[in-house]
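Quick one, probably user error.
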């Protein structure tokens, strides 16, 4: 992975409380000890933890992100919602949008697009998730689905400077199954070519992989040409497991 950064992005999902900072602190201590360069570690945590964790990490090289946001820029009558402006003011610099778990709960491509535009407007870097189901993969629809998700999700988005595209095959999330070397190489290449064509190669394309990433398979994954980093789910809820992933990337 010969890019400006290797991205190690943790998606904690519905996990953690104030005491869970010990996990991030152990990772922070490790990174400071070995003086790891050219990496960017981001923890996307529940909204309740953003402000608390970002304050503790002010002098750290670890960044905090959110896991979703509302599509509106300003305040409004939306009980239980939080928008990108509020997320930014709480201390987050990143936000995950388009995750398959949110798509299942009703996030359409159009809604995701509006969220992305709002997040960019409020100076958040978007981790834009795309991916096909197992049924779609078996029907050879992967490229068609990814192309549609990119076209609709990034509609009227003029720049990739604030976008990290995360390829997460739905059938790989939490299953322990990852695509073959051939499948992943071909899909990452397709995504890169699609983005280069759409944005006329004006901006560098950052593509990461997510889906059952762990210390055992990370060496296979870093061998895939074109991957800039990883979106890590369950393994990010353990300091040791997350550190082992980083270690195995550099061994």
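Nope, works fine. Designed sequence:
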């Amino acid at each position: 992975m010969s890019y400006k950064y290797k991205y190690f992005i943790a998606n904690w999902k519905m996990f953690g409380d104030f005491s869970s900072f010990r996990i991030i602190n152990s990772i922070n201590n490790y990174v400071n000890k070995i003086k790891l360069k050219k990496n960017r570690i981001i923890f996307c945590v529940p909204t309740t933890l953003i402000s608390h964790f970002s304050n503790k990490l002010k002098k750290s090289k670890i960044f905090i992100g959110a896991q979703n946001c509302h599509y509106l820029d300003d305040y409004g009558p939306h009980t239980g919602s939080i928008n990108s402006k509020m997320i930014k003011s709480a201390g987050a610099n990143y936000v995950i949008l388009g995750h398959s778990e949110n798509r299942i709960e009703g996030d359409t491509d159009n809604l995701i697009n509006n969220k992305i535009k709002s997040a960019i407007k409020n100076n958040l870097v978007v981790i834009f998730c795309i991916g096909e189901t197992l049924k779609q993969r078996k029907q050879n629809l992967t490229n068609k689905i990814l192309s549609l998700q990119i076209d609709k999700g990034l509609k009227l988005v003029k720049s990739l400077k604030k976008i990290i595209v995360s390829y997460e095959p739905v059938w790989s999330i939490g299953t322990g199954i990852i695509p073959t070397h051939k499948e992943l190489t071909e899909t990452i290449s397709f995504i890169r070519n699609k983005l280069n064509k759409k944005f006329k190669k004006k901006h560098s394309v950052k593509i990461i992989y997510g889906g059952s990433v762990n210390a055992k398979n990370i060496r296979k994954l870093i061998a895939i040409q074109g991957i800039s980093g990883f979106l890590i789910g369950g393994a990010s809820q353990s300091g040791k497991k997350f550190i082992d992933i980083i270690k195995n990337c550099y061994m």
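The longest helix spans residues 181-198.
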